[in-house]
Amino acid sequence: MAKWVYLFTEGDATMRNLLGGKGANLAEMTNIGLPVPQGFTITTEACTQYYEDGREINDEIQGQINEYIEKMEEITGKKFGDKENPLLVSVRSGARASMPGMMDTILNLGLNETVVETIAAKSGNPRWAWDCYRRFIQMYSDVVMEVGKKYFEELIDEMKAKKGVSQDVDLTAEDLKELASQFKAEYKEKIGEDFPDDPKKQLMGAIKAVFRSWDNPRANVYRRDNDIPYSWGTAVNVQSMAFGNMGDDCGTGVAFTRDPATGEKKLMGEFLTNAQGEDVVAGVRTPMPIAQMEEKFPEAFEQFKQVCQTLEDHYRDMQDMEFTVENKKLYMLQTRNGKRTAQAALKIACDLVDEGMRTEEEAVAMIDPRNLDTLLHPQFDAAALKAATPMGKALGASPGAACGKIVFTAEDAKAWAERGEKVVLVRLETSPEDIEGMKSAQGILTVRGGMTSHAAVVARGMGTCCVSGCGDIVMDEANKKFTLAGKEFHEGDSISLDGSTGNIYDGIIPTVDATIAGEFGRIMAWADKYRTMGVRTNADTPSDAKKARELGAEGIGLCRTEHMFFEGNRIDAFREMICSDTVEEREAALDKILPYQQGDFEQLFEAMEGNPVTIRFLDPPLHEFVPQTEEDIKKLADAQGKSVETIKAIIESLKEFNPMMGHRGCRLTVTYPEIAVMQTKAVIRAALAVQAKHADWTIVPEIMIPLVGEEKELKYVKKIVVKTADEEIKAAGSDMKYEVGTMIEIPRAALLADEIAKEAEFFCFGTNDLTQMTFGFSRDDAGKFLDAYYDAKIFENDPFAKLDQNGVGKLMDMAVKLGKGQRPELHCGICGEHGGDPSSVEFCHRIGLDYVSCSPFRVPIARLAAAQAAISMKH
Ligand code: ADP
Ligand code: MG
Ligand code: MG
């Protein structure tokens, strides 16, 4: 019989896959002797089984849960529903990877009218007893029965108004008792039956709710964004309660062993007296800084500081902890490696190396490459920032520079961003429902909440700028406006946020590009030391190439030449070329383009300083270049001495049913060899010119033929390229080398890679097209149905963003093997969007690619991901 349930004393930190992160760490903390309220963990496998059994908990699992309730009763000396000494528990979700705020916790389970009277009498603290009960009804109704928090919050607000108090803690036992009965009435009205009294029934309802929450829309979105597979499932932790709400010598808090925003080594956190659970993070009351805990509870604080030290030494990483003080006694409720900003991650990793706690390789492995993104984005221009006067200041909860138009709801943030607006989301406080909107915003500003509020935690996780807890704002969410510093702001007004200082500015403050320095530079240097795969960039313009070089690119893996045709009046010449009737006419038009193209290539070779540059020949269907407006058509007709009708007829003749699979790529060269001749001349002449200027560089231009699917096709095109190139080189009296290779982006090319490799000197996987052609759907239309595919659990990710390793990856793996088998010196790279996606980069390392190529801002991400792949393969 499988074991579905583990006591905290039966597990440890290595059992994360089975017990979830929270469960494994509760067990580990128990093992190292920290004060943890005891309990048990129902495994992630039980969750998977629950879904297999059609969302039911089968008898075997049920039986083990009952058995473990008894064990727990023995350990704690308390009993479920008991009149003398009742057991109260929390039911907590906990997946392998932490998913903050994604799934809900239920506290004080085991209460009913009888039990609440018992604990009220026994403790002599009826206020506490009724506070627990009303909280339990509220959480259970919300989480298990999905009644909706808002009704309960309205009832609390009504009660506070009636009593003329502003805070929950000012409500009396009688008020809370009254609230509890109102809550139960609300429950009965919404659900149609009485609130459950039997603790075991309550527990089973709660466990099922945790399992069910694994599949809620918020969790699904979070998983997709964070590469967490659906198949993992969540564990459930059932833990006896520690009470932070018994009075003023109780409290609850959260803390980090280092600053999660900056990485600075100092205890950071927040604390609330006489409070429970989410009170600290929900922004119900504004919590006090952890340092003040020292005054309130000197002994518990001293002990807590030691626990922090123990945990950091034990996990060798910054810890994020949750704890409760019950009658001055400390209980640890959670620890995990804390989420942190990219900046903090770099500092902490470097500090841990300097403190002798971690090796360089471990430090490199600790950084989530996806987080680097935020550091590569613009920062405020220092001079402009200095000149600006903040109109308000709150907590710098997640660093970064954000400017944009104010919106007041998550839905608006999403909608506005979709139409290309930069927005800043301003809210009283955020909740998990707001995730999508938060993702769409440049920055988030909240009126309530501290450093550990939902907004702060989630924003840090996403790398989005966040300023939280700006109590000076007078908010009117209903009418979409607020007042700050005497000025009224409306939807659409501009605002800037500095997530490092917490400053808020009226209007837009200009930003400047980021640089790699300090700890960022140190980590990147280590990454370069340990990685074996090259990192190039996709760059079409000299400025992109320069940027990429600054960010560490070791060459250009893809230059899309067609992008150069749109600049200035080149497009006129290109259109003339397209609308030519004869080869002579076409060549005349191409002759006009040649010098431009050569000039562009020279700049690229210059920018790359002798590193390899791969230039792809014309790829898109010609139809993409023809004039659209009457005016442009007339202009072209006049230039060519043709009638408007003739031009229109040519344009019409270029239309294709399926241009993606039409007359494009190397097919253009087969029909119009003179295009390839011109492009070859431009590449070779540019390379010769730059080589002549820099004797210390060895320039070997790489000419890449797109969309090849057959060896003879490549052979035909290559012959044209080679003839032209050799003539140019000879005429220049040079012995410059060059290479001709191909994109592998048609499945047939991957299947016949050994044949293709007879002609190709390198392969570059164009995984955008390869994905499109392997799946048989267009990347431009996939958006129409991908959401339905996610909902139906057919896809977990967008295969255009994250490489489909099973299918497309298999083709790549095969092509590398076949290609290198035919031609051992063949070099292989990838230049699709996937070249900048960490998990795809890891795959590329595994199948033995020589380099990945990605957009300039992804270069550092790829460098780090490549290093992590090399390090993890080594160990
Ligand atoms: P999350 O994963 O969202 O942080 P948790 O399971 O950690 O959810 O629960 C949230 C909070 O509930 C904890 O930080 C803690 O304050 C409180 N809590 C959970 N279990 C207990 C317990 N056994 N005793 C006291 N408080 C608890
Ligand atoms: Mg927690
Ligand atoms: Mg392509």
What would you say this structure looks like, in words?
- The chain has 875 residues and is an alpha/beta fold.
- The protein has three domains: 5-246, ATP-grasp fold, A domain (Dna Ligase, domain 1), CATH 3.30.1490; 377-512, Phosphohistidine domain (Glucose Oxidase, domain 1), CATH 3.50.30; 531-621 and 656-874, Phosphoenolpyruvate-binding domains (TIM Barrel), CATH 3.20.20.60.
- Helices cover 47% and strands 16% of the residues.
- The protein is built from 35 helices and 31 strands.
- The strands form six sheets. The chain has an eight-stranded mixed beta sheet. Strands 24-25-26-27-28-29-30-31 form an eight-stranded parallel β-barrel, surrounded by seven helices. Strands 1-2-5-3-4 form a five-stranded antiparallel beta sheet.
- Strand 15 (423-427), helix 18 and strand 16 (443-446) form a beta-alpha-beta unit.
- It starts with a strand and ends with a helix.
- The structure holds adenosine-5'-diphosphate and magnesium ion (2 copies).
- One magnesium ion binds next to helix 31.
- It holds the Pfam family PPDK_N.
- Substrate binds at residues 560, 616, 745, 766-769.
- Mg(2+) binds at residues 745, 769.
- It catalyses: pyruvate + phosphate + ATP = phosphoenolpyruvate + AMP + diphosphate + H(+).
- Residues 519-869 form the PEP-utilising enzyme C-terminal domain.
Order of strands, main sheet, comes to 12-22-21-14-15-16-17-13
Mean pLDDT: 93
Total domains, how many? 3
CATH superfamily of the largest domain: Phosphoenolpyruvate-binding domains
Main sheet attributes: strand count, strand direction, barrel closure: 8 strands, mixed
Strand content: 15-25%
Number of helices: 35
The structure class reads alpha/beta
CATH level-3 fold name of the largest domain:
TIM Barrel
| Strand runs, count | 31
Q: Which CATH architecture of the largest domain would you pick? A: Alpha-Beta Barrel
Which class of the largest domain in CATH terms? Alpha Beta
Helix content class: 40-55%
Head-to-tail CA distance between termini: 34 Å
Distinct ligands, ions and cofactors found in the model: adenosine-5'-diphosphate, magnesium ion
Overall 3D form = elongated
Q: Segments where pLDDT lies below 50 for 5+ residues? A: none
